[in-house]
């Protein structure tokens, strides 16, 4: 029986990350089509990418990019993201490298799905609250971030941050 052991890749420079990203489709997806390569706040850059990927097509082709479409895309994106983030984390030797932002993209799509249609100010507020929850990681987000590993763990803690954001907006709208 032959066993192939994949050496871990610990990359630090943006150029090395870009080369790594282009080496496999899972890397390209997990790193948010390059948005995760931002040298400053890659999670925020990934969330901005998610916002653009949601808002632009929905605004241009609302008959195609319906809530049903986005619901299916989010579910599929979550499932594919488990694979892509797991593969990318293993290949990098870092379970949840900062350049992996597919989790932010999918989670922010979930926020937008439930908030839309919303004006620009509301979308900005949702963006800020989501980023705050994702960065501060209030319980149980921190628990999931520390104890649930692999691709599922990478994806799940951001879904919980999206839930907190939506819960905040539900309370705000009910008041």
Q: Could you explain how this protein is built, in words?
A:
This protein is an all-alpha fold and about 180 residues long. It has one domain (about 40-175). The chain has eight helices and no strands. Helix 5 crosses helix 6 (about 120-135). It is globular, with a radius of gyration of 16 Å. The model is unreliable at about 1-10 (pLDDT under 50).
How many β-strands, per DSSP? 0
Which class do the helix and strand fractions yield? mainly alpha
**Helix and strand sequence:** HHHHHHHH
The major sheet is characterized as:
none
In DSSP terms (H or I, runs of 4 or more residues), the helix count works out at 8
Q: How widely separated are the two ends? A: 64 Å
Q: Which SSEs are present, and which pair or pack?
A:
Elements: H1 14-21, H2 25-30, H3 42-60, H4 67-92, H5 102-115, H6 120-136, H7 141-147, H8 150-174
Short summary of the structure?
By secondary structure, the protein is mainly α.
Tag the structure with descriptive keywords:
single chain; about 180 residues; mainly alpha; 8 helices; globular
């Amino acid at each position: 029986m032959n066993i192939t052991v994949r050496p871990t890749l610990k990359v630090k420079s943006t150029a090395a990350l870009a080369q790594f990203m282009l080496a496999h489709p899972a890397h390209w997806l997990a790193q948010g089509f390059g948005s995760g390569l931002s040298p400053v706040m890659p999670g925020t850059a990934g969330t901005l990418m998610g916002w653009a990927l949601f808002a632009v097509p929905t605004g241009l082709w609302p008959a195609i990019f319906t809530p049903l479409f986005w619901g299916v895309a989010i579910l599929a994106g979550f499932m594919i993201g488990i694979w892509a983030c797991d593969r990318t984390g293993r290949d990098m030797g870092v379970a949840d490298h900062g350049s992996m932002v597919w989790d932010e993209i999918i989670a922010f799509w979930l926020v937008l799905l439930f908030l839309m249609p919303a004006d620009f100010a509301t979308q900005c507020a949702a963006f800020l609250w989501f980023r705050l929850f994702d960065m501060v990681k209030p319980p149980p987000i921190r628990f999931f971030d520390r104890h649930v590993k692999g691709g599922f763990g990478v994806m799940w803690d951001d879904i919980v941050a999206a839930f907190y954001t939506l819960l905040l907006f539900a309370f705000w709208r009910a008041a």
